[in-house]
Model the fold of this input.
Amino acid sequence: MVILGIESTAHTASMAIVDAEGNVRAIASDVYKPPSGGIHPREAANHHAEAFPELLARLVSEGHLHPEEVEAVAFSRGPGLGPCLRSGATVARMLSLRWNRPLIPVNHCVAHIEIARLLSGMTDPVLLYASGGNTQIIAYAHGRYRVLGETLDMGVGNFLDKLAIALGGTFPGGPLIEQWARQGEPTVELPYSVHGMDVSFSGLYTAAKVAFRNGARREDLARSVEETAYSMLCETLERAVAHLGRHEVVLGGGVAANQRLRGMVERMATPRGVRSFAPPPKLCVDNGAMIAWTGYLVWRTGGAVPVEESLVDPRQRTDQVDARWRTPPPGARSPDVR
Ligand code: AMP
Ligand code: MG
Done:
């Protein structure tokens, strides 16, 4: 028995097969790379529409996908870019009808935390979700995942992508800035923007561009940006962990591939007696496996929908969906009650 997961919220078109024990059998992905500047939703959606048949064919020809084995088809319902979400949902609906299998909508942000929970074996972690379009601190409470803090403007990944282009680089910016930062010193003073549990990156973006124009070395700027931006994320994550009294943190999203961020989170967590875990990069970035696994959890707890109710929801919030698989049976003590 396996679940097919389909991901298409932004740049990445991905399909994956995961079984009921949580073994990731295969992932096939294709990432849309804008020729210049940021992502264009319609062009990305066209890319995905062309990519999915190839990804499906690849899974079949490599022997990973046997349609008769597929028990359910899961897809990202949101949040994400409408046209991109619709390409993935269309493929999911088509396969669900063709194979006569249940169709399972999945919240993309919840999927990042569920794959990290699966891989780490942790029960009740706080998630730092740091991706291109999203930057959030998420934890479970009272039947749903709650957003405890988030970016007030752009996602940290988009910030790094935009900044790298302004500094003469190309997409994706995060890995490039990481590379430059290794040869730099944190000597450029930049605005540190934490507002309660939220963060913002636009001031940092402007200040970094101005510093570059005024002659700051790209490497020093990259290092300073990493120190500032990741400290902001660590501060809000630490506050969430302290407030909730949790003992586990997980990272998700493409920016969680960053070594400096991983190291900072670990240095924050270890002295507090908090375990930290970051999935391997291919499961940090957007991928079909997290959708398949979360789809399995949603399906097991009655979350299948008929095609007529499978509309995508580009603005779906993490706390709009019930995490029924996390609800303790009647009489049991809720894990978040202390
Ligand atoms: P996602 O939106 O989760 O698919 O992740 C894509 C984002 O992750 C892009 O904004 C990338 O620039 C960013 N990213 C990928 N690798 C790294 C890295 N090593 N350091 C920082 N950011 C990264
Ligand atoms: Mg993501």
